[in-house]
Amino acid sequence: HVQLVESGGGLVQPGGSLKLSCAASGFTFNVYDMSWGRQAPGKGLERISSIASDSNVIYYADSVKGRFTISRDNAKNTLYLQMNSLKTEDTAVYYCATGYFSNWADRGQGTQVTVS
Are 2 and 105 a contacting pair, CB within 8 Å? Predict the structure, then answer.
């Protein structure tokens, strides 16, 4: 079954950077599109970036465009999210999940990002 483990979150000052990782197992990672989403306190889960299985199609939400970069290493079964120029409003729990338009049903436990 699908297992996704997010890591790399932490506390960072505004303007700083973090790189999140999502380790995938239990499925054929290299044929699945993947997505990153986030959930801030009191808000719904927001889709912020998606990547096709072969990385040839990528989506970014306007809120992160130009600051975040999604990537994947199919040989390592790992999805990444490089986050630069972080803002206080980026504070949230970040999740990865399968699918380009994910329903988030198989998301991992998440990793907390706090910008303060």
Answer: no
For residue 85, the tally of other CB atoms under 10 A from its CB is 13
The per-residue pLDDT for range 22-76, each reduced to its tens digit, is 999 999 999 999 999 999 999 999 999 999 999 999 999 999 999 999 999 999 9
Nearest to 51 by CA among 95, 97, 84, 5: 97
Smallest Cα–Cα separation from 104: which of 40, 45, 32, 61?
Answer: 45
The conformation of residue 7, written as its DSSP 8-state character, comes to E
Pair of tokens at residue 106: 């198989």
Judge whether 96 and 38 are in contact, CB under 8 Å. no
DSSP 30: G
Residues 112, 9 contacting (CB under 8 angstroms): yes
Which residue, among 60, 56, 67, has the nearest Cα to 12 in the 3D structure? 67
